[in-house]
Amino acid sequence: MIHEFPETGPKILWRKSLGTGFSGLTVAGGRVFTMFGEEGREKIVCFDADTGDEVWKVDSDADFAQGRSFGPRSTPCG
Description:
By secondary structure, the protein is mostly beta strands. It has strands spanning 26-28, 31-38, 41-48, 54-59, 65-66, 69-70. A four-stranded antiparallel beta sheet has the order 1-2-3-4, with no helix packed on it. A hairpin with a 2-residue loop joins strand 1 and strand 2.
């Protein structure tokens, strides 16, 4: 069976506004994991995949900056 998105695109379940960086998303076990820069620190955060509710957030004790570009360049894996 081939699944295709509708012409209008997939249904958006939820959105989050996060800080700076270039981290991707990891989805595993009903959770969504990512990283971002906030207040001069890098954060690792976990959301419930169905609701978008924040499950936990931790400070990674790092702050990457290069030129005018700030925030993490890596993606957490589950």
